[in-house]
């Protein structure tokens, strides 16, 4: 099995676990403050790891790419995702988020000249159908929330393509650490304003702290290193084919942890997602670079 496939499966399964942890933490700490601490903890963890590795010098001509990743990808995109979820509701926001494979594939085709093969098109369609079956569309549609969620998808897709573009020059650790620093700095004033305007009741206890640490170290630092590493090994549209695994994992954990009802649509949708991902990865011609990462 390819290392990159293991990286991607691990990434999206852990991102799916955010569904459980964030439900708990967001009940105690304001939304954007959670985002700020999440990135701060991730940056600290990555900085400690980087002490044992050789320091990479970033070329001035590439500053703009790191800014795009940190500001647009991690700050604007993720904050919009949180805000969109709050306005439009979790189901609608998750459904829009499932468009990531499509948007990333299209951007990769335009910016990176990646070919969108027929098996990936079929796989994406089947996976999106599975996501639709699991989540549904919801009864009420909040246009503002939908728009903000769509902006989040566009921003994340653009960031992923840029990461792929410069992944041959910098390690996944450097790409992720610098981006996290930028996102942290950008989130500080937003978090401060949130607390000042809303005056929320903040409950900082051991559970909330452990939840933030898990979100920062495991679901942010570790997973984004794997994501950026995967983008350096495989085409962006191949990596994006794994996105439905995140929805599948979060839905499964919802059943296990929150005792949500296991419906026929969940089982059928899960089958569509699994088949869609497999079709995206199989029945295709391997490129020379993909063959080199086989183990």
Automatic annotation (TrEMBL):
It is a multi-pass membrane protein. It is found in: Membrane. Keywords: Membrane, Transmembrane, Transmembrane helix. Residues 4-135, 144-281 form the EamA domain. It comes from Faecalibacillus intestinalis. The lineage of its organism: Bacteria, Bacillati, Bacillota, Erysipelotrichia, Erysipelotrichales. The chain crosses the membrane at residues 5-26, 32-51, 63-84, 90-111, 118-135, 141-162, 206-227, 265-283. This is EamA family transporter. It comes from the Bacteria. Belongs to the EamA transporter family. GO terms for cellular component: membrane. InterPro entries: AA-Vitamin_Transporters (IPR050638), EamA_dom (IPR000620), EmrE-like (IPR037185).
């Amino acid at each position: 099995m390819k290392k990159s496939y293991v990286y991607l499966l691990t990434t999206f399964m852990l991102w799916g676990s955010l569904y459980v942890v964030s439900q708990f933490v967001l009940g105690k700490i304001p939304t954007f403050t959670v985002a700020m601490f999440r990135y701060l903890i991730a940056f600290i963890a990555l900085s400690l790891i980087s002490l044992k590795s050789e320091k990479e010098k970033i070329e001035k001509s590439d500053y703009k790419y790191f800014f795009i990743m940190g500001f647009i990808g991690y700050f604007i995109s993720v904050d919009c995702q949180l805000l969109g979820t709050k306005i439009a509701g979790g189901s609608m926001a998750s459904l829009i988020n499932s468009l990531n494979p499509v948007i990333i594939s299209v951007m990769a085709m335009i910016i990176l000249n990646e070919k969108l093969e027929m098996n990936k098109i079929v796989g994406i369609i089947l996976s999106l159908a599975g996501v639709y079956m699991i989540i549904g569309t919801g009864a009420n549609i909040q246009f503002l929330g939908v728009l903000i969620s769509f902006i989040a998808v566009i921003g994340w897709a653009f960031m992923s393509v840029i990461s792929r573009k410069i992944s041959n020059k910098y390690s996944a650790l450097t790409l992720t650490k610098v981006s996290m620093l930028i996102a942290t700095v950008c989130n500080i004033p937003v978090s401060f304003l949130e607390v000042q305007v809303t005056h929320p009741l903040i409950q900082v206890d051991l559970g909330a702290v452990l939840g933030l640490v898990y979100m920062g170290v495991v679901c942010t630092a570790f997973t984004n290193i794997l994501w950026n590493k995967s983008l350096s090994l495989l085409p962006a549209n191949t990596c994006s084919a794994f996105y439905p695994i995140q929805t599948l994992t979060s839905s499964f954990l919802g059943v296990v942890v929150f005792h949500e009802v296991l419906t026929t649509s969940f089982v059928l949708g899960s089958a569509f997602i699994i088949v869609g991902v497999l079709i995206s990865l199989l029945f295709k011609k391997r490129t020379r670079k993909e063959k080199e990462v086989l183990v």
